């Protein structure tokens, strides 16, 4: 899952995560209902909520309001080293609607792309589904089905409304790392198969060592460490293209990695992606097509095991779409070997994974890997290069942010349970 954090500062707020708890803004998680479904009992509504990822939050001095991180650099007085920074800096609560453009209504979550708040302009967001005020909801995916409705009609080229599962700790890493005082309540402990190095705190320590500010993003940089875990990209999409991609890792659970060898070695960063346009069916997904992205539709993902039990080995990931009472299917992801393939994915599924929902633009590759021709070094006639109808010049974050600030994505009607019970 490619990610980037962009949070343009005009005053005190800054997009960064921390490990102490601040007291200047009260943290209140927006409520979000979802349903748990069984063959014998039907679907039962579950009372949940969402929490904002720590990397978007204001990090300030524990005893005041001095930024620990401004733009894309650390305050060297408050953060001379990882441990001292964790002791000095506090992670504060979030104004979900006013600052971040995050709203919920019953079973629906809407993420707005650009939000002009009282102190800042925020770009995109990432949230997690909560089981309680201090724990993420954990999903055991083997021999289960996950369904949601999505509206991508307001997502143009260059944007990605992503819904996926990550092998994070339920408490955000508090039990493992005592210096992490904020935990899941404040959105800590993120990891994915890209082993992102832009996460500000990993394993309860600030990622300040060898921090390098980004050359094209004034609000981001990379540190010495990355944070890796298995990732199941159920949904990465806009109104033009969509993909689902399992990414296996050889490590189990959230793991801090250092160095280019480990960064490229423990996880399958490319994954085994399935994009119907890339596979040659150019009339399946898009405005006015079989799956018509001009209106809401239902996405069903089934995680099939060899013996149809929750303990069996994962053998297939099946995708179905439902819209206006009609069902459409396009292909399965049957096998891939890198970093353990479906067997490795199944191991992570049995331990439980956290549901992540986000909206972002791409400072690294302009989202061309999702909705255009990629990589640019290869001919468009090469199989797999054409991934969507967006122009190769599209997706530049500065342009997308300037031209499409009102973009948004809405996820709703989330259901999880036995195969065949959620739609």
From TrEMBL:
Catalyzed chemical reaction(s): Hydrolysis of (1->4)-beta-D-glucosidic linkages in cellulose and cellotetraose, releasing cellobiose from the non-reducing ends of the chains
> Mind telling me which InterPro entries this protein's record contains?
ConA-like_dom_sf, Glyco_hydro_7, Glyco_hydro_7_sf
Q: Name one GO molecular function term.
A: cellulose 1,4-beta-cellobiosidase activity
Q: Does the keyword Nuclease apply?
A: no
Q: What is its EC number?
A: 3.2.1.-
> Any idea what this protein is called?
Glucanase
The family line of this record is: Belongs to the glycosyl hydrolase 7 (cellulase C) family.
PANTHER family associated with the record: 1,4-BETA-D-GLUCAN CELLOBIOHYDROLASE B (PTHR33753), GLYCOSIDE HYDROLASE FAMILY 7 PROTEIN (PTHR33753:SF2)
Pfam families (alphabetical): Glyco_hydro_7
Keywords (alphabetical) are: Carbohydrate metabolism, Cellulose degradation, Glycosidase, Hydrolase, Polysaccharide degradation, Signal
Which positions make up the signal peptide?
A: 1-18
Q: Enzyme class, one word?
A: hydrolase
Q: Could you tell me which species this protein originates from?
A: Hydnum rufescens UP504
The Gene Ontology biological process annotation of the record reads:
cellulose catabolic process
């Amino acid at each position: 899952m490619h990610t980037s954090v962009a949070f343009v500062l005009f005053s005190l707020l800054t997009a960064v995560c921390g490990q102490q708890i601040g007291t200047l803004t009260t943290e209140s998680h927006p409520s979000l209902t979802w349903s748990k479904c069984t063959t014998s009992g039907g679907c039962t509504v579950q009372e949940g909520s969402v929490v904002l990822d720590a990397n978007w939050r204001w990090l300030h001095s524990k005893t005041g309001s001095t930024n620990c991180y401004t733009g894309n650099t650390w305050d060297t007085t408050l953060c001379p080293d990882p441990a001292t920074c964790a002791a000095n800096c506090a992670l504060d609560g979030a104004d979900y609607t006013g600052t971040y453009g995050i709203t919920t209504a019953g079973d629906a979550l809407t993420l707005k792309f650009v939000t002009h708040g009282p102190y800042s302009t925020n770009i995109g967001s990432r949230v997690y589904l909560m089981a309680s005020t201090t724990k993420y909801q954990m999903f055991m995916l083997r021999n289960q089905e996950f369904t949601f409705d999505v509206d991508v009609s307001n997502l143009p080229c260059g944007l990605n409304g992503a819904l996926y599962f990550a092998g994070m700790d339920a408490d955000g890493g508090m039990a493992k790392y005592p210096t992490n005082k904020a935990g899941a309540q404040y959105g800590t402990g993120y990891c994915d198969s890209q082993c992102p190095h832009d996460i500000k705190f990993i394993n309860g320590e600030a990622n300040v060592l060898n921090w390098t500010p980004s050359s094209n993003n004034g609000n981001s940089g990379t540190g010495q460490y990355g944070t890796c875990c298995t990732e199941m990209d159920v949904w990465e999409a806009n109104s033009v293209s969509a993909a689902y991609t399992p990414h296996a890792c050889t490590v189990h659970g959230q793991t801090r990695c250092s160095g280019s060898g480990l960064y490229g070695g423990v996880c399958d960063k490319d994954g085994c992606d399935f994009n119907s346009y890339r596979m040659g069916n150019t009339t399946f997904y898009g405005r006015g097509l079989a799956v018509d992205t001009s209106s809401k539709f239902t996405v069903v993902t089934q995680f099939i095991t060899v013996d149809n039990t929750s303990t069996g080995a994962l053998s297939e990931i099946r995708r179905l779409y439902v819209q206006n009472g009609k069902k459409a299917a396009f292909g399965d992801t049957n096998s891939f070997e890198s970093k353990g393939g479906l067997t490795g994915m199944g191991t992570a599924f049995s331990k439980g994974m956290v549901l992540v929902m986000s909206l972002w633009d791409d400072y690294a590759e302009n989202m061309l890997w999702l909705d255009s021709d990629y990589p640019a070094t290869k001919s468009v006639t090469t199989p797999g290069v054409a991934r969507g109808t967006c122009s190769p010049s599209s997706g530049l974050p500065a342009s997308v942010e300037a031209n499409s600030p009102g973009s948004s994505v809405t996820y709703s009607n989330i259901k999880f349970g036995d195969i065949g019970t959620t739609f």
